[in-house]
């Protein structure tokens, strides 16, 4: 079994996941509401929104969609996506990319439990934690 996170956006899903694919070096599979067999039941103004997107990074997946009139957007709250990275330069690079245009709750820094740790919300409203638990030499 695997547990995967599923995010909801309010029209920014495609932009967010294109950014995540580039930042995390992943691949995307994307379907719009217009491509659904049930498109006739979706108001036309939502047809170009993302019905489902899957970002694959290695053997991990992050999925999402945009809201519709039938499922109104309530924001992303109460959870964070955590990136467990293998080295300090990778942590620094991800932190810089994800923090740009967002808000930082905890700067990337050494803690008593981690070589580097940070908490931030990116420009799309997604909360992230970056954790790196390797020695400085790695």
Descriptive report:
The structure is a single chain. Helix content is 17%, strand content 36%. With 138 residues, it is α/β, with parallel strands linked by helices. The chain has 2 domains: 5-66, 2-Layer Sandwich (Signal recognition particle alu RNA binding heterodimer, srp9/1), CATH 3.30.720.100; 81-132, Signal recognition particle alu RNA binding heterodimer, srp9/1. The strands form 2 sheets. Strands 1-4-3-2 form a 4-stranded mixed sheet, covered by helices on one side. The protein has a 4-stranded mixed sheet with strand order 5-8-7-6, covered by helices on one side. Strand 3 (50-57) and strand 4 (60-66) form a beta hairpin. It is elongated. The mean pLDDT is 93.
Brief summary of the model shown:
This is VOC family protein. A four-stranded mixed beta sheet has the order 1-4-3-2, covered by helices on one side. A four-stranded mixed beta sheet has the order 5-8-7-6, with helices on one face.
CATH class of the largest domain: Alpha Beta
Q: Do you know the CATH topology of the largest domain?
A: Signal recognition particle alu RNA binding heterodimer, srp9/1
Percent of residues in helices: 10-25%
**Uncertain runs with pLDDT below 50, 5 residues or more?**
none
Distance between the termini: 31 Å
The number of helical segments is: 2
Domain tally:
2
Number of strands: 8
| Biggest sheet statistics | 4 strands, mixed
Estimate the global geometry from the Cα principal axes.
elongated
Order of helices and strands: EHEEEEHEEE
Strand percent estimate = 35-45%
Cα-atom radius of gyration: 17 Å
How does the helix and strand content classify structurally?
alpha/beta
Which strand order do you get reading across the main beta sheet?
A: 1-4-3-2
CATH architecture of the largest domain: 2-Layer Sandwich
Q: What is the arithmetic mean of pLDDT?
A: 93
Protein name: VOC family protein
Pfam families: 3-dmu-9_3-mt
InterPro entries: Glyas_Bleomycin-R_OHBP_Dase, PhnB-like
Domain PhnB-like: 2-130
């Amino acid at each position: 079994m695997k547990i995967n996170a599923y995010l909801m956006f309010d029209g920014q899903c495609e932009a967010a996941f294109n950014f995540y694919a580039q930042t995390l070096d992943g691949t995307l599979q994307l379907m719009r509401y217009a491509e659904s067999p049930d498109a006739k039941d979706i108001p036309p103004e939502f047809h170009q929104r993302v019905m489902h997107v899957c970002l694959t990074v290695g053997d991990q997946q992050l999925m999402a969609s945009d809201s519709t009139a039938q499922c109104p957007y309530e924001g992303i709250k109460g959870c964070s996506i955590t990136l467990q990275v293998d080295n300090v330069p990778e942590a620094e690079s991800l932190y810089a990319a994800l923090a740009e245009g967002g808000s930082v709750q905890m700067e990337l820094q050494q803690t008593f439990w981690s070589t580097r740790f940070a908490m931030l919300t990116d420009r799309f409203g997604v909360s992230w934690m970056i954790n790196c638990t390797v020695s400085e030499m790695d």
